[in-house]
Each structure stands twice: as C-alpha cells, then as structure tokens.
Amino acid sequence: MKIVAPKGTRDILPPEINKWHYIESIIREVMNLYSFYEIRTPIFEYTELFQRGIGDTTDIVNKEMYTFLDKKGRSITLRPENTASVVRAYIEHKMYGLGGVGKFYYIGPMFRYERPQAGRQRQFHQYGMEIIGTKDPKADVEIIKATEEIYKRLGFTDYKILINSVGCPKCRPYYEEELKLYLKDKYDQLCDDCKVRYHKNPLRILDCKREGCRRATESAPKIIDYLCEECKIHFEKVLSYLDALNIKYEINHRLVRGLDYYTKTAFEVIAGGLGAQDAVGGGGRYDGLAQEIGGKEIPGVGFAGGMERLILALSHAGIEFPREDIQDLFVVFREEVEKEAFALIFRLREKGVKADYALGKKSIKAQLKEADKKGVKYVVIIGEEEVEKKILTLKNMETGEGKKITEKELYKLFEKE
Ligand code: AMP
Fold first, then answer.
1. How many angstroms is it from 375 CA to the middle of ligand 1?
2. Whose CA is nearest to atom 15 of ligand 1?
3. Cβ–Cβ under 8 Å, residues 378 and 393
4. Hey, whose CA ends up nearest to atom 8 of ligand 1?
5. Angle at the Cα of 332 (from 331 to 335), degrees rounded to 5?
6. Which of 215, 236, 358, 399 has its CA 20 to 30 A from that of 82?
C-alpha cells in the first residue's frame, strides 16, 4: 500500500512555500519594528501544562490533544497552541527578573485532533505574539495594531476585528449566574455539548454555532454590563486607544474564545471568503495563566493567527505574492564543455548571480526548454567555440535577442539588474 501524509496534515510544496516565506518575512519585519523578539519553545510539552493552562473544560483539552506516554511513562502532548509554552518559558527562565516587559513572537506548527475541512487541519501553523508582564491596556492595543500592520503590509483589507471583554474571576461568576438564570427555561433548546457547558463553562454557549443555541442566547444578558470596575475601566481604555489609532472594530457580545485562560479583552479577526472557518486569528488577555501553571501572578496579552487561513484569505482577496523561484540566469552548454560550464555556474553564484542549469539533460534544445519552463529571463549558451574564444552567447528569453558577451560584462549586467 502506498504511504500518504496523515489525515489532516499537508505537504507545503514549492512554489506554494514562496507564500509562506513572504508572509513570514512580513511578520518578522513588523515584529522587529515593534520590538517583539522571536521565541522558540518545544513542539511537545508535559500534558499538564495544557491541562492546567488551557483548562479542563475546553474542547482543546477534552477532545483535541495529541497526547501519548513516552518511554518512561510521562504524559506528553504535541502543543495545540503556543501561549501556554511561552508563559511557561517566561516563568522557567525567570524572565520577569530581567526587568521590563517581555515581548515575544513565534511562528510554527500546532496540533489539534479536529475534523479536517477547508481551513481546518490537524497540523496547522500559527504565528503569534505575546506581551508578558503588564496589565497596561495599551499592550492589548499594541497587539491589535501589530496584527493590523501585518495585514496592511500584505495588502489585506477584507477583515473585521471583533472585540469583547470576558471579565475576570471576580466578576465573571456573577455574569455566569445571570446567563444560567436566563437560559434555565431554554435549557432543552441547547445542543448536547452546550448542556454540558451550561454546568461547566456557560460562557461557551454564547459562541456555539448551532441554530438552537443561537436562538436561545439571542437576547441573553451581555457580559460587558456585568464587568467589575477594574475590567470596565480596562475595556473602556482599550476601546479609547483603538479609537485614537483609528482602528476599526465591532463589539461582539458572543465573543468568548475557546480557551479558558482569557481575562478581560478578547478579540478575533474574521476574514471574507473563508466560509465556516472564517477566523484568521484571535487573542486576548490572560492575566491568570501564569498562576495557573504554577508561577507568580504575571499578566499577559497575546494573539495567534492561522497561517493556512491567512493564505486562503489572501488568495481569495486576489493578493499576488512575489515569486522567489525564478533564476536570474540559466547556463546551457554542450556536453564537451560541461566542466567549464559547471565552473562558470559557481563563479556566477559567488558573484551573487542566481545561476542554474538543467541537471541530467544533454541536448541544447532540452536545456533551453527547461529554462523557458522556469521563466528565466537570460540564458547563457556555451559550446567549444565560446570556451576557446573566452566569450559567452547571451540570450534574452523575453525578446529572443542574442549577443556575444564576456564573463566580466555578464557580471556587470547582473549588477545593474
Ligand atoms: P485559537 O488558538 O483557537 O484561538 O486559534 C487561533 C487561530 O489559529 C484561528 O483563528 C485560526 O486561524 C487558526 N486555527 C486554529 N485551529 C486551526 C486548525 N485546526 N486548522 C487551521 N487553523 C487553525
């Protein structure tokens, strides 16, 4: 039987990988400009990190984790997201001791055992950013602004920012009680999952996509009317800073996010043309997370965006990506002078000319065909005569023009190009 890639995973092949490199370079550019520094944490962690960090009542922890025992019987989980790991690393390396606030970003694969569909995979990739060590609402807005800046540089405009506050452990329980009270006589309309959520995590009923649950929660009380003074002021400040930066947003009372560790600000970015899986990213504040995983009380705020979904959204918006797989020059040669041609290719490369050639092809015609297929602009043709006279035949594949040129002149040409 033929072996194929596991269900829910995808090979990223050239030239698609161009898109990834391009987006990643813009992310790095913006992150660098905003003084966020890259952090790379392990792909797997002790399972407990996610159980305690993300929360036992979430779908991720309950249903979606790739968990296994290693050879010593320790429970290991492939990371389903990166925030818990970044906070773990921050505590483990006592980075709070460095003084100031930690600003990090990451790009990498995450793993969730979900039902694969368009825009949803079991191995997918996220880029994300975290600001750890401050409660300042400006940090929440900086994260949102950085997200927008990345989109702006990509030329992406077909998105909407949704925002809400999910309160804190002080005020959220009051709201949860209110919500439960409101839903008490609508309990039978709820789906089976939401019946469980009603007892364990009622907030999540608000973002259930099922028709019955949507109807049941249509006129439910709004969490922002139940925030404590601290959460209310925080939310107002976030909105006022967003206004100051001219960032457009929509307050969405259903937005609660899938992870338990969020406090105060929660936000999500949805994009056009993606169908059901329209969230290209989401984030929020997680002031309780560090304590949850055994550290001190260290506030934080972050965002994670899906790479695959962003690429889908950009493609849908008709955004073009610069290609990186086009060579400057193709060297075509007769077999008799292959050693001379081979040496020339590396001299060209040393000078920074992206020169390539056809491996395993003998006839000039086949080599030219390959150059043409690869969309190369210039071809250099070498035969015995050229080697003898130390001259090259240069052909412009776009105009069909040909001329004789010395190696020195060739370097000059590419310096100009
Ligand atoms: P979350 O950590 O659930 O807030 O996810 C943040 C972003 O990651 C989402 O908005 C999606 O863009 C992306 N994402 C989450 N789960 C998947 C998945 N299974 N497949 C592809 N992208 C995903």
1. 36
2. 306
3. no
4. 306
5. 125
6. 236
Residue 80 Cα: closest atom of ligand 1:
2
pLDDT digits (tens, 9 = 90+) for 237-278: 999 999 999 999 999 999 997 677 789 999 999 999 888 889
124 lines ligand 1 (CB under 6 A): yes
Instruction: Write the pLDDT tens digit of every residue in 333-365.
Output: 999 999 999 999 999 999 999 999 999 988 999
Q: Which amino acid is at 208?
A: C
Which positions ≥6 away from 185 have C-beta within 8 Å?
none
Beta bridge partners of 123: 111
Residue 281 Cα to ligand 1 midpoint, Å, equals 7
**Residue 121 in contact with ligand 1 by CB distance below 6 A:** yes
Ligand 1 pocket test: pick from 12, 82, 83, 110 the residue with the most ligand atoms within 8 Å of its Cβ. Answer: 110
Amino acid at 302: G
pLDDT tens-place string over residues 24-59: 999 999 999 999 999 999 999 999 999 999 888 788
- C-beta 281 within 6 A of ligand 1: yes
| pLDDT recorded at residue 258 | 65
User: Taking the CB of residue 124, how many other CB atoms lie within 10 A of it?
Assistant: 20
- Compute the distance from residue 229 Cα to the ligand 1 centre, in Å: 32
CB of 116 closer than 6 A to ligand 1? no
86 neighbors 104 (Cβ within 8 angstroms): yes
Are 231 and 118 spatial neighbours (Cβ–Cβ below 8 Å)? no
Residue ranges and CATH numbers for the domains of the chain are 17-171+227-316 (3.30.930.10), 329-412 (3.40.50.800)
Mean pLDDT to the nearest integer, 85-113: 94
Query: Hey, how many other C-beta atoms are within 10 angstroms of the C-beta on 52?
Result: 19
Instruction: Match 């596991």 to its residue by tokens.
Output: 6
